Amino acid sequence: MNGRGKDGVALAAALATRAGGMPxxxxxxxxxxxxxxxMVGKALGATAIALGGQDCHVRPSGAFTGDVSAEMLADLxxxxxxxxxxxxxxxxxxxxxxxxxxxxxxxxxxxxxxxCVGETQxxxxxxxxLDVIRRQLAGSLPEGATAGNVVVAYEPVWAIGxxxxxxxxxxxxxxxxxxxxxxTRFATAEAMRILxxxxxxxxxxxxxxAVSNVDGxxxxxxxxxxxxxxxxxxxxxx
Length: 238
What we know:
Radius of gyration: 17 Å
Mean pLDDT: 95
Number of strands: 7
CATH class of the domain at 81-217: Alpha Beta
Structural class: alpha/beta
C-alpha cells in the first residue's frame, strides 16, 4: 500500500526506459496497488515488463464492496496475481483454503497465481519450518497447477522488511523441499518457478539467485526504488 499516481507512473516509466536492455533470460513483473494498475500498465506500454495484482477475490463478481476480482485484474491487462502473501495471511486471516480458492479464481480468469508460503519466527525457532511449508503447499495449491499457471514464492515471514535474510544454505533447504513436494503432485514440477522473497536487495540478490532451486525473487521494499529494483533484476541474469 505505497504510492500515488505520480509515484507509480514514475517507477513504471523508469523501468520502461530500461526494458530494451533486459536480457531474454529475465522476466520482470510489477504488482502495483489496485488504484495504480491502469496507470502503471499505460506507462509500461509495449515493453516486456508484465503487470500483476496484489490480491483478488474468489468470486468473479457480486456484492463484495471494496474487493477486486481476478477478472477485473485481467481486464486491466494483468497476467499475474499474488495469492496468500504473508501480510494477507496474518493481517486478513487468510488460511490455506482461502489462498487455494484465490489461486483457482486466478486460473478461471486466465491469470498465473503466485502462491506465497512461509514460516514465522516462532515456527522457525521451534524447528517446524519444513512442516509449515509442506502444509501450506498442500492446502494452498489447486489441483491442475502447472508450470504455466502457478509460481510458488517462499517468503520467510521473519525476514520480510526486517533486513534479516536466511543463509544460502537455509534457503536451499527450503527450496529443495518445495521442489520435492511439488514433484509428488504435479507433472510439471521441475519446470515450476520457485521465487525467494524476504529482504531481497541488490547487495544479496546474486548470491540468493545462485542457490539451488531458486528461480527468481519476490521483491518487497526494494522495488520502490527503480535503480535498486533494476539492479536486482540484472543480478538474476548474471
